[in-house]
Write a structure and sequence with these properties.
This protein is α/β, with parallel strands linked by helices and 239 residues long. It has one domain: Acetylglutamate kinase-like (Carbamate kinase, 3-Layer(aba) Sandwich), CATH 3.40.1160.10. It is 37% helix and 19% strand. The chain is built from eight helices and eleven strands. The protein has a nine-stranded mixed β-sheet, with helices on both faces. Helix 6 runs antiparallel to helix 7. The model has no long low-confidence stretch (mean pLDDT 92).
Length: 239
C-alpha cells in the first residue's frame, strides 16, 4: 500500500543556519544536497511545496545594527542574504531534476522572478517547488512572518519550521539541560510564555487564521516526510 500524505500543500520555513550543515560554513553544499534529497522525497508523494528561506547563516538584520548600520538598511541587507541562499538552493534542486520557481518579494533584476501570487499558485499546481526570498520586501519583518504570510496567501495546510532543535522547549535546551520539550502547545501559550519559536507577528498570523505549524529538527533524516505522513515529530502548535 503506497504512503499517502496527510496534507496537500505545505510551506517549509528554512532558517539560514540550516544551510551551514554540521560544518558551520556559510553555505555547505553537502547540507543543501541532503535537503534537496528530502524535498525530492516529499515531491514523490505528490505534495505541493513552497519554501521560505532565511539568511541568518550570512547575516541577520539585527546583527547588522551592532555594526552601526541603521535598522532599515540592516533589514535590507538581511533580505538580500535570503536571495543568495535561495539561488544556491534552487540550483541544487534543479541539478537533482526538481523543477523550481524562485520568487522575490522585491525586484532584483533578471536573477529572480518577482513574487506574484497567481504565478506562485500556478507553479504549485504544476508541482514546482516555489522558493520565496526577500522576506516580505519591507524592513521590521522577519522571514518567520514572511513564512506565515506566504503560507496564508497560497492556502497552505501547514507551516513546517525547520530548525536544528527537535521542537519547542520551555527554555533554551542549550542553556538549560532540564528544559522540557512540548509535543503540543497552543499559539496563545507560545505568546504568553514568550517562547522564541517564531516572532510574535508570525505566531499571531497563524493563530488568527487557524494555520497549524510544526517545529522540528531538520537534521534528523526523514523528519519532514514523517510529519507529512501524519506521524508525531517535533512540536505541533495550533489553537
Amino acid at each position: 500500500m503506497s504512503e499517502r500524505p496527510k496534507y496537500k500543500r505545505i510551506l517549509i520555513k528554512l532558517s539560514g543556519e540550516v544551510m551551514t550543515g554540521q560544518k558551520g560554513v556559510v553555505i555547505d553544499p553537502g547540507a543543501l544536497l541532503v535537503l534537496a534529497e528530502e524535498i525530492k522525497e516529499l515531491g514523490e508523494l505528490g505534495l505541493e511545496m513552497a519554501l521560505v528561506v532565511g539568511g541568518g547563516n550570512i547575516i541577520r538584520g539585527a546583527q547588522a545594527t551592532d555594526y552601526g548600520i541603521g535598522r532599515v538598511t540592516a533589514d535590507q541587507v538581511g533580505m538580500l542574504t535570503t536571495i543568495i541562499n535561495g539561488l544556491a538552493l534552487r540550483d541544487v534542486l534543479e541539478e537533482m531534476g526538481i523543477s523550481t520557481s524562485l520568487q522575490s518579494a522585491f525586484p532584483i533584476g533578471e536573477m529572480v522572478t518577482p513574487y506574484v501570487r497567481a504565478h506562485a499558485l500556478r507553479d504549485l499546481r504544476e508541482k514546482k517547488v516555489v522558493i520565496f526570498v526577500g522576506g516580505i520586501g519591507s524592513p521590521f519583518f522577519t522571514t518567520d512572518t514572511a513564512a506565515s504570510l506566504r503560507a496564508l496567501e497560497i492556502g497552505a495546510d501547514m507551516v513546517l519550521k525547520a530548525t536544528k532543535v527537535d521542537g519547542v522547549y520551555d527554555s533554551d535546551p542549550l542553556e538549560n539541560p532540564a528544559a522540557v520539550r512540548f509535543d503540543h502547545i497552543t499559539y496563545q501559550e507560545v505568546l504568553q510564555r514568550r517562547l522564541r519559536v517564531m516572532d510574535s507577528t508570525a505566531i499571531s498570523l497563524c493563530m488568527d487564521n487557524n494555520l497549524p505549524l510544526v517545529v522540528f529538527n531538520i537534521m534528523a533524516r526523514g523528519s519532514m516526510k514523517r510529519i507529512i505522513l501524519g506521524k508525531k515529530e517535533g512540536t505541533l502548535i495550533d489553537g
